[in-house]
Amino acid sequence: MENIKQIVKILKRLKFPAKPTKKQLLLYKEAVYKTCVLQKQPEVLILGATPELRDLCIKHNCKVTAVSPGKIALEAMTYMMEHKDHPNNKAIESNWTNIPLPNNSCDLALTDMALTCNPIKKHDPILKEVQRILKPSGFFFIRSYDMLEHESKLDPDELLKQWRTREIVTEDFIYLSPRISLDENNNISQAKNLEIFKQFCQEKKLTKKEIAILIPYKSKGTMSCPYRKDLIKTFSKYFKNITVKCAKDPKIKTIEQDALFFMQVKKF
After folding, report:
1. Helices and strands counted in the chain (H then E)
2. Bridge partners of 240?
3. Are 257 and 152 in contact (CB under 8 A)?
4. Nearest to residue 163, comparing CAs of 119, 210, 125?
5. What is the rounded distance in angstroms from the CA atom of residue 80 to the CA atom of residue 267?
6. What are phi and psi of 260, to 5 degrees?
7. Which band of pLDDT confidence, cut at 50, 70 and 90, is reported for residue 6?
8. Cα–Cα distance, 84 to 171 (Å, whole number)
9. Taking the mean position of all CA atoms in its chain, how far away is CA 54?
10. What is the DSSP letter of 216?
11. Does residue 183 sit in helix, strand or coil?
12. pLDDT tens digits, residue range 187-244?
């Protein structure tokens, strides 16, 4: 339990883009509300364990099943929930390509950064599994970090400069790694990202306060950041009526790179 509480302390320090903004949560709320109009007590699948999404659904009388591959993260995020003890709150430890739920069993699927947290080669299997679980009338709503066609890579020093002048979000330094470390497969090299972070620390380019802000965002995992048109092309294999929404926020200038996709399941 003590270990979980330590992880919770770190998670509570995270801000956008590691967690959705209030305006983005309003878009999620809109998707949940639309589903509730069609179904009296919708069954909702959540890829991951984002406490804000789970609490949102439970407040709208939805039956929630959160699926996460990490037991510790699942327990920590459940601990952070307002409605963690609610009977409609269910959690399963499982990967996202083989979820132990029956076909056509959910009305809505929500996720926050599930694809971003996986290399691109895993996108198809994950989307196919979500399509299998959703009912023919079901919907999928996802927040994803993606590159726009006009964007170009920055060198690390230019990225640091923009971060300091707040041209990019204060907590967005690590997540903007595609601008400095996107590989040929459109995957983010977190290893390269960490090397740059370590170099900045060694060369004393970062203050102690800046290091404290960035440390929770360090990650060794593989992330992905495809171009938006490529992401939509992948979605279209399994879903239809794909809508892109961006929750504009004057405080967050990079928000357009952080899109929310709302789509309807395509059954064959």
Report:
1. 10, 9
2. 264
3. no
4. 210
5. 36
6. -115, 130
7. confident
8. 28
9. 14
10. G
11. coil
12. 777 777 788 888 888 999 989 988 888 887 777 777 788 888 999 999 999 999 999 9
Distance of alpha carbon 141 from alpha carbon 30, whole angstroms: 10
pLDDT, mean of residues 60-89: 95
Q: What is the length of the chain?
A: 268
Query: Does residue 54 contact residue 83 with C-beta atoms inside 8 Å?
Result: yes
Residue whose entry in the numeric block shows the structure tokens 């996460």: 68
Q: How many CB atoms lie within 10 A of CB 227?
A: 16
Least confident of 96-105, 118-127, 198-207: 198-207
Calpha distance 7→125 (Å, rounded): 29
- Domains in the chain and their CATH numbers? 2-146+226-265 (3.40.50.150), 156-224 (no CATH)
User: Facing residues of 43 across strands?
Assistant: 63
> What is the rounded distance in angstroms from the CA atom of residue 177 to the CA atom of residue 67?
27
